[in-house]
Amino acid sequence: MVHSYAMHGRPMRDHIAYFKYLLTNFNIVFVVGDYNGGLQFLNAANESAEWKNDNLNIGMINLDFNDKDKYLQELSEARKVYDKEKRVFCFLRTPNPAWIREANESLQNSFDRQKIWFAAKAQDTNRCSSFNEQSHKNIPIDSIIFNDEKSDPYSDKSEKMIDFVDWVYDNVELSKIECSLIQVSSTSQGTLQFNLPSELRRQQGDERTRKDSYSALVLGNYGINLYYDIIGYKEENPNWEPFFL
After folding, report:
1. Does residue 6 belong to any structural domain of this protein?
2. Which of 22, 46, 218, 232 is buried most deeply by CB count within 10 Å?
């Protein structure tokens, strides 16, 4: 995990602008999101004037991957429509109790097997100068909003870049903290729930404890596995017939 974004209460246009920054500055090969809210956001982004002016558009992989018996068939269909160059690489997951349990257990398994690594803080040492390198990247920092100020508090671009590098690291740490807060409980029907402790869920206000970054990581871990399944799928030859030697 090398990047994290967590900004609540901002208008949709700010989220769309930040998503554009990610698409144009990272090697994006797959996008996964929650269908509840994700579809509205994706449609708004595709229809925005800023995206249209830059010929940006993200295409959907319209499958559900719910039926285990049809999983290979749907992988075959997804492999045919997936297109990185045309950005047809977005899958929006519709959550259900069975998938929520499976996805959370998959994330735990990834932790246990050390398959998930979190980026360290950028810093300058005798062996590397990652902070200096990152804070001098040529990115559209003027169009990126990552603070809650109503006006831009920075006097110049370099000052904002320095703050941005620190902010990205803080959000990665936030994801780790939220993961550590998750508790597993069971309902009276035997359904497992993965949530914050009850005392944290009772908090109110903008500064309340959230689990949005954790939920994004659950989806990201699921999306990584689905992406590799789609890319690695090979169509079997249906015309092959056994013969006697």
Report:
1. no
2. 218
Q: Residue for token digits 């908090």?
A: 203
Measured CA to CA, the distance from residue 38 to residue 45 in angstroms comes to 10
Number of domains forming the structure of the chain: 1
Q: What is the pLDDT of residues 151-169, one digit of tens each?
A: 677 778 899 999 999 999 9
User: Distance (Å, rounded) from C-alpha 25 to C-alpha 20?
Assistant: 8
User: Residue 5: inside a domain, yes or no?
Assistant: no
Q: Is residue 244 part of a domain?
A: no
Give residue 148's pLDDT band: very low, low, confident or very high (50, 70, 90): confident
150 band by pLDDT with thresholds 50, 70 and 90: low
Model's pTM, two decimal places?
A: 0.87
Position 4 in a domain? no
Tell me the pairing of strands 192-195 and 183-186. Answer: antiparallel
Domain region containing 40: 12-232
Mean pLDDT of the residues in the chain: 90
* Per-residue CA distances from 130 to 73, 121, 162, 235 (Å): 44, 9, 12, 43
CA distance 76 to 157: 47
- Residue at token pair 């990665």: 172
Largest pairwise CA distance in the chain: 80
Q: For residue 101, which of 195, 179, 216, 31 has the smallest C-alpha distance?
A: 195
